[in-house]
């Protein structure tokens, strides 16, 4: 679609019509992920065409312009399937209101050999971390006011090879409970209570994990989420978001995060 001007215009017009018809404030593009440098270049053109169409529609209808945002990889550039890709920062700065960096899913069912902090703020052994990702966007020239940090309200699960070895990076044999080794925070809280799980806070990665028997769960809770929100505010970025709000048990983590941001102002 993005490589063809006519297809882009059809998509853009349909999106604007749908957003207005349903009374939305704007539109968010979630493309996971452009497959090559050509796709990335065309993505920048799509954003440019889209913003032009939004502004034209707003002038024509005498309404406020629709918001335009996008969900993006946690870092500005990356290799997937041995193909290097980098987002068009120039176009994002000019045409989007902000981007939502998906700072999670660093570990999961694709690697069952060891447990992992799937939304680690820091990783002492690699650049797969939220701090690295956010800073990579800023280093590439993205305006800080355009950057929003994503936080997960779900965790990843593994079955430990040895229940006595139960830290981040411990050997595992398979995914644990949940849909392909994924539990919402509501489900994690229920599991921990039912099974008397031990809950640990790892300050090296700024993440939370729990374990009971051979089951190990990596997630965020109010402690780690609050620390991450503080990091984001200190970095001077626009804000944060959760995926997904319905996974939060009685809005606990959401409330703590909100208070942390307000208190820090």
Automatic annotation (TrEMBL):
Protein name from the UniProt record? GH18 domain-containing protein
Record flagged with keyword Lipid biosynthesis: no
Q: Which Gene3D superfamilies match?
A: 3.10.50.10, Glycosidases
Q: Would you tell me the Gene Ontology cellular component terms?
A: extracellular region
The source organism is Gossypium mustelinum
What are the GO MF terms of this UniProt record?
chitin binding; chitinase activity
Q: What is one Gene Ontology biological process annotated in the Swiss-Prot or TrEMBL record?
A: chitin catabolic process
Sorted keywords for this record are:
Glycoprotein, Glycosidase, Hydrolase, Signal
Q: Give residue ranges for domain GH18.
A: 1-264
Q: Which SMART domains match?
A: Glyco_18
List the InterPro entries. Chitinase_II/V-like_cat, Chitinase_insertion_sf, GH, Glyco_hydro18_cat, Glyco_hydro_18_chit_AS, Glycosyl_Hydrlase_18
Q: Which family does it belong to?
A: Belongs to the glycosyl hydrolase 18 family. Chitinase class V subfamily.
